[in-house]
Amino acid sequence: xxxxxxxxxxxxxxxxxxxxxxxxxxxxxxxxxxxxxxxxxxxxxxxxxxxxxxxxxxxxxxxxxxxxxxxxxxxxxxxxxxxxxxxxxxxxxxxxxxxxxxxxxxxxxxxxxxxxxxxxxxxxxxxxxxxxxxxxxxxxxxxxxxxxxxxxxxxxxxxxxxxxxxxxxxxxxxxxxxxxxxxxxxxxxxxxxxxxxxxxxxxxxxxxxxxxxxxxxxxxxxxxxxxxxxxxxxxxxxxxxxxxxxxxxxxxxxxxxxxxxxxxxxxxxxxxxxxxxxxxxxxxxxxxxxxxxxxxxxxxxxxxx
Length: 305
Fold this sequence. Notes:
Immunoglobulin-like; 5 helices; five-stranded mixed β-sheet; elongated; disordered C terminus; 32% strand; 10% helix; 3 domains
């Protein structure tokens, strides 16, 4: 079942705190990064010391390990802006020379995160779910997992990140109750004695906010709400044609006994009488009528004879 591992990991582990945009985890990516020149040792806490090895932008990522020395690899969660999340799930695809890749150590960042790995993790066609236990993930370009590994022989491999093969899901869950999950939009790959694959959050897309009949492009619903507008994320352009423009609705206009089905402004230009209560020009023609005498009119006339 899709997202089973992540759902199990998240159930009952935290009380959600409501945030605005930091809880919207769409457009997130997983970056596979190996800090250049860093040789793995089993005496260092690589999660704790990520600050000296980590990245703060897409162009700093290194996706290729061109040495057989033991190196450090990070799985990094990234967006265009800082986020707050409590669940992660990802996996490895199949990759060549899998038995040549020797894992010396691996673990969640932070180490306190609850992990639910598949039986062969880490390895080809394996995956893992993580849930924050006492420390949530906050910020951007944050590590969620690390590896210490090397290539035993000089044989190339490319380890592609992707969805957890056990669940078919790869992405993030926020810290609300209940948590909402968001699929990652890109997955990087690490090349071992080969070129890897970079990943980077996509540029944000502006969408339409209609303030009365004026079209504005905004990034978030909050921006639109602040303008007193109506948010339309399904539209990404102000035209032409202008999606916020509401064309006048035609109705009946009587010029004498002639009926026209036109707009109110057009009726005024023709010096007609606007009749929005009529839906069409008939038949019968709503403009061709003789007003009926009120029942009391005859009595009134008799008084003044």
